[in-house]
Amino acid sequence: MEPTPEKNINNEIQPGIITAPFTSEQVEALNFYQQSGVWHPFTCGYPHKGLDFSPTLTAADDGWYCEISGCNYTQNWAHSAMADRKLIEDTKRVFEESAKNAKKLKSF
Ligand SMILES: [Zn+2]
């Protein structure tokens, strides 16, 4: 059996990557990321024939789960930035501001 690699102070297994178990703060931020619309969300890695959308994943402390009931796809890692709530909020604000400014420019 492989030894469990040490995690660094940011709970990262390697720079930029965090793995389950996630802390409750990370779970909350990861799910905020998923619905923020700031970046493309993590989606299921299994084919779901007949669906016209890619099912998104929901984070839990032991990893990611597909939103489609009965699908057993799981994933145990995330990009560290996806768990950085402040970064997501700041980026969302920048996007909203630039959308507002674009609307103002169009009205001239
Ligand atoms: Zn799935």
Features:
single chain; 3-stranded antiparallel sheet; 108 residues; binds zinc ion; 2 helices; 32% helix; alpha+beta
Question: Brief description of this entry?
Answer:
32% of the residues lie in helices and 18% in strands. It is an alpha+beta fold and 108 residues long.
Characterize the structure shown.
By secondary structure, this protein is an alpha+beta fold. It has one domain (12-106). 32% of the residues lie in helices and 18% in strands. It has two helices and six strands, in the order ββαββββα. It has helices at 24-36, 85-106; strands at 12-14, 17-19, 57-60, 63-66, 74-75, 77-79. It has a three-stranded antiparallel sheet with strand order 1-2-6, with no helix packed on it. Strand 4 (63-66) and strand 5 form a beta hairpin. Helix 1 (24-36) runs parallel beside helix 2. It is flat and about 60 Å long. The model has no long low-confidence stretch (mean pLDDT 90). Zinc ion is lined by residues 44, 46, 48, 55, 66, 68, 71, 73.
